[in-house]
Amino acid sequence: MMTRHFKNGPSLGYLKSREGKILLTIMVFFVIEVNTFAYIEKLAIFDAIYFTIVTLGTVGYGDIHPTSTLGRIITSLFIVVNIMILAFFVEQIGERLIKQKIEEVLGI
After folding, report:
1. Are 70 and 94 in contact (CB under 8 A)?
2. Model-level pTM?
3. What's the number of domains the chain is made of?
4. I need a surface site. Which of 21, 45, 91, 107 has the fewest CB within 10 A?
5. Coil vs helix vs strand at 67
6. What is the pLDDT of residues 37-50, one digit of tens each?
């Protein structure tokens, strides 16, 4: 249940936490990436969403791929940036879980 992670139940206060800010950053980058791919590669919006998910999920089916040099460069940059953001997000979650476990063990 989600309420156990919030002292006063679920709220928008989560977006003030580090994890919330990182999650919001990921969503903003996703929207930027989709629109960038749609514009540069002349993709329909749903194709751009599909391409972004497949690329960032490292699946890479190859059915849709960047055809321009600029598209390839931007795709490469977006992959690197998203890996860094995702790694930071996972690190923050791990830090929070460890902190909660320490507090639980120490009775704080």
Report:
1. no
2. 0.67
3. 1
4. 107
5. coil
6. 999 999 999 999 99
Find out whether 38 and 48 touch, Cβ atoms under 8 Å: yes
- Establish if 75 belongs to a structural domain: yes
Residue 47 in any domain: the answer is yes
CATH code assigned at 59: 1.10.287.70
Here the tokens at position 40 are 């540069």
Q: List Cα–Cα distances, 100 to 72, 104, 105, in angstroms.
A: 42, 6, 9
Interval 81-103: pLDDT, tens? 888 888 888 888 888 889 888 98
In a domain, 9, yes or no: no
C-alpha 35 chain-centroid distance = 16
Give me the domain span that covers residue 100. Answer: 16-106
